[in-house]
Amino acid sequence: MEIRINHLIEGARQAEGLVVIIDVFRAFSLECWLFAMGAREIRPVGAVEDALAWRTRDPEAVLIGERHGRKLDGFDFGNSPSSVDPEIIRGKRIIHTTSAGTQGVTGAVHAQEILTGSFVNAKAIAEYILQKNPDVVTLVCMGKEGLAPAEEDELCALYLQSLLRGSPMPDIDERLHALRTGGGKHFFDPDNQEVFPEKDFWMCVDRDRFSFVIRVENQDGSLSSVKLS
Questions:
Q1: pTM recorded for the entire structure
Q2: CA 193 to chain centre
Q3: pLDDT digits (tens, 9 = 90+) for 131-190
């Protein structure tokens, strides 16, 4: 198995084989939490306008999204797992758009298969890939808004790579904890809790919490994030 590590939006566009689009803070950690909360379906979209258009197709759909970290006008929730009300999203279709993660999913046009990537289900992702045994795996670190590297996404790619190679990182928990003063320090800014609550950090670094993977499929002409147990 050839394992490649790509970066940012251009890396997603160039990704081949079985592709894992990684967005730890917070898009694809959030999608795992949404399924755990009982969401029926998640539709990742790139453009804000496409998300809003779902209102006419499904008035009951819940819109979740951000730009520059902030909740979008007209949306029900921002990209914050700790801010989502499980009672509102349970059994609902979720429309999800973000600055990085969903842009990578919609941009990975050469992928044979797409999975979303995060720490909360990393072990399940590695086990799924090992079972499929593709010739090429591309791990795409989406970074900050898909334009600049993010420490947490790079670390997640290295962690997945270590699991796929059968040599788990012995210091992974220490490195995750160190993100508090690195890639995740904005979650600990007391003046920024409305946008980046501290609880989000801990929910996103809760390593290997979930035993399912999320595969992105084309359904009815649009993308759908599908939970695979």
A1: 0.97
A2: 21
A3: 999 999 999 999 999 999 999 999 999 999 999 999 989 999 999 999 999 999 999 999
State both tokens at 168.
């788990």
Burial 144-173 (b: 16+ CB within 10 A, else e): bbbeeebbbbbbbbbbbbbbbeeeeeeebe
For the segment 49-94, what is each residue's pLDDT rounded down to a tens digit? Answer: 999 999 899 999 999 999 999 999 999 999 999 999 999 999 999 9
Rounded CA separation 123/102 (Å): 22
Residue 64 CA to residue 108 CA, distance in Å, equals 21
Look-up of token digits 């258009």: 53
Is 207 in a helix, a strand, or coil?
A: coil
> Please, what is the Cα angle at 168 between 161 and 172, to 5 degrees?
95
Instruction: Specify whether the CB–CB gap between 79 and 64 falls below 8 A.
Output: yes
